[in-house]
Write a structure and sequence with these properties.
- Chains A, B, C, D: Pfam families: GFO_IDH_MocA, GFO_IDH_MocA_C3.
- The structure is a homotetramer.
- By secondary structure, the first copy, chain A, is α/β, with parallel strands linked by helices.
- The first copy, chain A, has a domain at about 145-305: Dihydrodipicolinate Reductase, domain 2, CATH 3.30.360.10.
- Helices cover about 30% and strands about 25% of the residues of chain A.
- The first copy, chain A, has 10 helices and 15 strands.
- The first copy, chain A, has helices spanning about 30-40, 55-60, 75-80, 90-105, 120-130, 145-155, 180-195, 285-290, 310-325, 330-350; strands spanning about 20-25, 45-50, 70, 85, 105-110, 135-140, 160-170, 205-210, 220-230, 230-240, 240-255, 255-260, 270-275, 295-300, 355.
- In chain A, the strands form 2 sheets. Chain A has a 9-stranded mixed β-sheet with strand order 14-13-12-11-7-10-9-8-15.
- In chain A, strand 5 (about 105-110), helix 5 and strand 6 form a beta-alpha-beta unit.
- In chain A, helix 4 runs parallel beside helix 5, helix 5 runs antiparallel to helix 10 and helix 7 packs across helix 10.
- The longest helix of chain A is centred in the last third of the chain and has 19 residues, at about 330-350.
- Chain A is globular and about 70 Å long.
- Mean pLDDT of chain A is about 90; it is low at about 1-15 and about 365-369.
- At the A-B interface, strand 7, strand 8, strand 9, strand 10 and strand 11 of A face strand 7, strand 8, strand 9, strand 10 and strand 11 of B.
- Strand 14 of chain B pairs antiparallel with strand 14 of chain D.
Chain lengths: ~375, ~375, ~375, ~375
């Protein structure tokens, strides 16, 4: 233990009334944000910062009230008692650290992507399930007020059946050393789609098309198409080379269509009460085909959204799912579903865009959603 | 001949000094626009309106100075002398009417799509070529001030090498009885891409993904991906079901990136002087891969565009190509190149998005570009 | 009578069942638009076009079914029977033509501004009132779907009490030979404010500030401030020299605030359910002053507007007010109220911006609203 | 002295090579921002935080490296050596604190407004001038990359002669307890106008119109008009009651017009190469009046702006003006010029909008700009 202000090793288990004791693993880019939000949460207690580079960890720990700093999970678990860990280290290390924590009986929050592959991710999910511990994916975008509102609107049936989802996330972005533009940017869109659809993200197959016009060795421009229930389709466009920035998701429904434009702070969500009208009787596809289609031009509505930090709500959900003993809303399985699509996308890309089947793990792990 | 004010049959051939005598075939939706522009053109003389429904034709002919009206091409050719015809009838009739006119020695302008299939289209191209007549595709969008400016900027090298093209054309649109959303909307994007790229539209293959979530029997949502030279890629998104209207084409280049937003009349084109910087030496892909990439944040520039009607410029080009004996800038072959991609897209769609090869007719008809 | 197709002089009076027989006076810029809309109206019959320049009148009359053309009101009234005239001649001639028509027992519609001065305008209003004839001001903007919706929302109390109105109408505009920017552009804003406020446009005084930085001899940039009921204020900014075009009216209310942006066709009106909250008890100003103020951040709502041509609705209202024997919604008095403000603005401008009182004619002509 | 880590009283004077030792006075809303920027500046050393509420001061001082904290200027000057103070206390205390510091031989930076009245402000300016000390107004907006660019463009003649300036700053804002909307918001616009115009802000008179429709006891909606050189005019619209937020300044020039829209981060400045064309010969106003005016529709250009924090540049300017012994670019006199207009505006408001003369102090203090 590096800090001399930390508590001694305790065997006392957490009880529902006490705040959740959480250690943040990783003091790089994302860890400090997590640490700040655990510190600010009334449900949690920031118990420690863990990083091999303890100087870096101390720099994070200082302004947060000189929380204790450890150089490894072993030392953390040996010296103080925590209930959970939040892992914000490079993706390739998630698997090892998460298993270590789960085996020590700790709940685990993992930065996206859940793991470097779905196979490793599944081991994490199984380890958590077998011990009755929470494994949560840090899909931060799902906890933005916009995504929470969209989930609510869809679940209340305000959009009707989903007809299409189109998501564009393009910007001048750093070409990443280890991942292509799909693995870098699409997890945001995929995790949100998983979050807002009642059935989650479960396409049968995906097709990915990409380009590497600068010869960087990986796709810098990418298009991902996959099926949604009821013959609907989703498409995601990610691009590192666009000097014009777009972050827009259009969700077309039989009743209304929603546009989420994340770059318009005062009106992020617009709901268009416009669309196709069928006569009520014609519920079957055959009937629809046979008859004329008319259009409906209704009002546009933009719900007020609270100005809440997504990360704060994510931390609250982590604590709540632990205390209530229920899967979190972005569970480990949600992380797996995102990995399933990314892996299939990579296979499709290798095969020149051929439709590639998406793994399904639903049967194996019932009840973990 | 229906109108009694028309001139008698004349054998006098057109000479370069006299205006081009043009008959418009079809008095439905598009024909009246063509007729109005031929009437207004100083290079042309609107000689007749032809339509089986002569009442409809008379309605168009009246306000344009009571030009003669005919019920068929046979009657037209039998009674008056024209130099050219402009065909604005349903696509399935283009082939027959164009061949009839070409065989009568007339130059032909054809509304998009050139023909119902590339095979039929090729017969038209060959018929025109063998007689030394002009066959021009009415790719109107290519003659908008925006498209003309983009063509000029690309050809002058202002954008550098093209890295990607992304075109979105979505709106609440009428589900067409005979064609899907690809054939209805994508010809606009495809013809523009053919027009602005120095080498024209010549992908090796395309992949198409579509959805018919309303069960109309045809794709209402569509995504089209294809390769561009130098490992670049193009993508076109067309959609009939979107209540939010987008008509935007992003053209990313190594030097600059251009955004064409057709719904912002005062600033349709924005040129971003931002992008990726490489060291000058590293021209090979291998070198690019090895070295760090940096970004350049430069000015944005929006060229002033004249407020000229595209159709008027198109008519001028038709007359000019005839008088100068050169292929028009949107030649029959340009129409064929668009058909090639559309047919490959339809095949890909049938095969669930499998990449489908695009026919190439370049060898057979050199010099007709 | 110039045309030989006109009917002979008839004494038959118009009855409620027959369409209103209307002659359009003036075949310049605006007259043809009026003529086209009277022609299209089921309530009206376009009986004649009158213009000293009969060639110009014939050009308008031709495509509208060769309606008769006259060179003067005298000839019109001498030769055919009409129920009403619509005057679209230069402002300085409105007074003479309107009086001539009213004395002949015709209802009169007058293009804005009603007259060259409020004194002349009042003579017109009085002449119409004394004969029980309709005098209507062609305040076209009031009949746009946007203005009609705003009037409805305000009258239903959706905005609460009005707190402020801010209207901006700036553009690169032609410097007019005879009027300054206030008289050229502000009538649009003033007539709309008169139309949407339940009490109409009745400020006690106005202050006008203008600039003529190019030395054209008249104000090219103008700002107009005046009081509204309940200590609210209105401000109008008009400008001929701005290359950026803005047409925006913000109407702040105690309950909601409405923004009319006329350059955003798909969302012209936005209603913000945001504002100041007071405790219910504090209805008096003294109480408001004493207590803290809080803010309410609610939804934004954009009502769907029909795509109806304003001029068509204006023509319908003219016919309806005649048939129903009631003042039209933009009556002669509405035109006077606009003139009152413009004249006071001119006086203020001469006095360097000093607040100038606005004439009030309300007492003299009760019941004419 | 409250902190025990501060240095002892030192008599060593600052020399040009050493960083400027600065104490921040006031640990409320703005002081921490100043402190953070002085801390980060390579030119300065943050020597102390001063606040009567030392607990509040310690909270600011802690994360900035535990800089010493003092409860008063007396204690500050008694215990440590500083070169300058930055005053971020309520406006009514600026005068007393600034004089105290100037009398102690310290350079002074003062948050806007410079003082509660121009009379008090002038005493500060005179006190600084007589001692050869720098008095700088913290007109932060002037140091935004946008304002710096606009100043540069105007001074290089890119806009030509200024024809009009229109500034709108409206938002849902807290009704302030002590000042009206003019004093709260207009200083931003006025200080920028003073900064960008070569001659500074020197109108002869201003007219102010305001409204207090909620009965808060002070204007919540305000319009300010004043003259600019060469018959141009400026107008500022400030409003606390508008739920739609606008921060836009339009600067019309004879050559180009610039629009600064501060809410569009990616394109804050647009320069329109559009405007009025005169024939070259007609340079006199009389000639302009006589001849026709034509329009020029040129390109739009949006310069790239660095993403620099304004406050950092302001701090740099404070240090530079001290080291170079020259007035800062937002000198005390700039603060006076803003106060001159605000005081005249208040007088105008009391007189119902009557034009009120603006005080001029230029003669008295030559050389202080």
């Amino acid at each position: 233990m590096v800090s001399n202000s930390g508590p001694l090793h305790q065997e006392t288990p957490a009880d529902a009334g006490a705040p959740l004791r959480v250690a943040v693993i990783g003091a790089g880019y994302w860890g400090p944000n997590l640490a700040r939000n655990f510190k600010a949460s009334p449900d949690c207690e920031l118990s420690a910062i863990v990083d091999q580079d303890t100087a870096r960890a101390l720099k994070v720990a200082g302004p947060l009230g000189d929380v204790p700093v450890f150089e490894s999970l072993e030392r953390l678990f040996a010296e103080i008692e925590v209930d959970a860990v939040a892992i914000a280290t490079p993706a390739r290390t998630h698997h090892l650290l998460a298993l270590q924590a789960l085996e020590a009986g700790k709940h685990v929050l993992v930065e996206k992507p859940l793991a470097a592959s779905r196979e490793l991710g599944m081991q994490m999910v199984e380890a958590a399930a077998s011990r009755g511990l929470i494994l949560m994916a840090d899909h931060t975008y799902c906890y933005t007020p916009a995504a929470l509102k969209i989930r609510e609107l869809i679940q209340e049936g305000e959009l009707g059946e989903i007809l299409f989802i189109d998501s564009v996330r393009i910007n001048l972005g750093l070409v990443q050393p280890d991942v292509d533009v799909f693995w870098d940017l699409a997890p945001h869109d995929l995790s949100v789609i998983d979050f807002i659809l009642p059935g989650g993200l479960r396409p049968e197959s995906v097709a990915a098309h990409g380009a590497d016009p600068l010869g960087t060795g990986k796709a810098c421009v990418g298009h991902l198409s996959f099926d949604l229930p009821n013959n609907a389709m989703a498409h995601i466009n990610v691009n590192w080379l666009s000097p014009t920035k777009i972050r827009q998701m259009i969700i077309g429904g039989t009743k209304r269509t929603l546009v989420w434009d994340d770059l318009v702070p005062q009106q992020r969500i617009s709901v268009y009460d416009r669309g196709i009208n069928f006569q009520k009787a014609s519920t079957s596809a055959a009937q629809r085909k046979a008859q004329a289609i008319s259009y409906r031009m209704g009002d546009t509505w933009s719900p007020a959204l609270p100005e809440t930090e997504a990360l704060g709500l994510m931390v609250t959900e982590f604590a709540a799912s632990i205390l209530q003993g229920r899967p979190s809303r972005t569970s480990g399985m949600a992380g797996i579903r995102v990995l399933n699509v990314l892996e299939a996308a990579s296979r499709s890309l290798e095969l020149g865009g051929e439709r590639s089947f998406v793994a399904s793990n639903d049967v194996q792990l019932e009840g973990t959603r």
